[in-house]
Amino acid sequence: MPTSFLEIVELPDGRIILRRAEDEEALVTLDFSSDAKAFLQGHHLEVAKAMLNVGVQMAGRLAEGEVDHEEGPRVLH
User: What is the number of structural domains in the chain?
Assistant: First the structure.
């Protein structure tokens, strides 16, 4: 992905997206359920920012070859 400024935007329907600043298309979309929002007590935007920040950092590490690709099934926690 070319280097550009990224922005996190909360859409009117409550979804949170990561997109290039010069583009309307979402690169990543987060959609918290009403139960999750209630559990987070209104802090879902902070959680979304943290999730997206770590994701962008990991994507950068993958692009630079810093992360080994595992063979076989992967378990996501």
Answer: 1
